[in-house]
Amino acid sequence: MLLLNASGCLDALAAPEVARQLDAFVTKTITPLPREGNAPPRIAETAHGMLNAIGLANPGRERFLGEMLPRLHELELPLWVSVGGFCASDYADTCAVLEDVAAIELNLSCPNVDEGADSAAKIVASCRAATSLPIYAKLSAAHPDVAGVARAVADAGADGLSLVNTLRGLALDPQTLKPILARATGGLSGPSLKPIALATVYACYAATGLPIVGMGGVTTGLDARQFIACGALHVALGTVMFSDPDAASRVREELAELGGERVYALAHDAENTLDLRAKVEV
User: Fold this and answer.
1) CA distances from 273 to 153, 208, 278 (A)
2) Domains of the chain, start order
């Protein structure tokens, strides 16, 4: 099992000591051209999580490859590059020029941009033709048949799944009763997302058997253990890292104390069924 960060939840160059607590680092989503993102305010706290409407702000592919990626390699961590775009060729062109990284995560489900995108399966197929690197497809639980989408991207050549991305939500100022975020809605993350994320991991593992990075409200070792019991191979930390920079080390220690390896072995034994996995005490 690897412990990763959720894309966009950690600036490894600004906080390398935090990044080195992880088993691998996932970059912020990179698009072909630079993006300033959405107007502020872009972050709002909620009772049980956080809304963000960053809008894929990033320096663009050329600057990332020339300036940021070499510096990230200095961390001596396996690197997963999050790739975004607005058509299949956007994704594939970036995948084609990536090398010497551990994996590519395709951001197929950002709720904070207005541009449409080609179908998830079409994007994965284009990227599969462009690179031999491992490809993880990041999906949203908002789709009415996310397990069907998971099967489609698996058939298109995805090596794994990242589950889940944020879900669209709204926060109102208690005084004005107007949206706090400039674009009104944003992506919900944090503990309130966890039950939905667990259900999605469970369904998509049953549908595909692919390796899964489980994420969405992981704050403790118990949370990580539950994602593993539902089928996740790896676990990613997101919102918790904003309030607890040492979350990765703590979650790893808590998971070890809870017997996380035993749950992993039970959950991923090829002879076990989903029924057996569901009976694991978490």
Assistant:
1) 23, 13, 9
2) 3-278 (3.20.20.70)
* Residue 87 annotated in active site: no
Measured CA to CA, the distance from residue 180 to residue 163 in angstroms comes to 27
Say whether the peptide bond before residue 101 is cis (omega within 30 degrees of 0).
Answer: no
Instruction: Quote the DSSP letter at residue 214.
Output: E
**Set 9, 110, 127, 204: catalytic member:** 110
Share of the chain above pLDDT 90, in %: 88
The residue ranges of DSSP E strands in the chain, in sequence order, are 3-5, 25-26, 43-46, 49-52, 79-83, 103-107, 135-139, 160-163, 167-170, 185-189, 212-214, 234-237
Instruction: Output the pTM of the full model.
Output: 0.92
What pLDDT sits at residue 279?
36
**Nearest alpha-carbon partner for 130 in 88, 84, 184, 100:** 88
Q: Three-state DSSP class for 111?
A: coil
Place of tokens 């998830």: 120
Residue with token string 């010497």? 100
- Quick one: pLDDT band at residue 281, thresholds 50, 70, 90? very low
Is residue 172 left, alpha or beta, with left meaning phi > 0 and alpha meaning psi from -120 to 50? beta
Residue-wise pLDDT for 198-226, tens only, equals 999 999 999 999 999 999 999 999 999 99
Q: How far apart are CA 91 and CA 115, in angstroms?
A: 14
Closest residue by Cα to residue 231 from 196, 263, 259: 263
Q: What is the CA radius of gyration of the chain?
A: 18
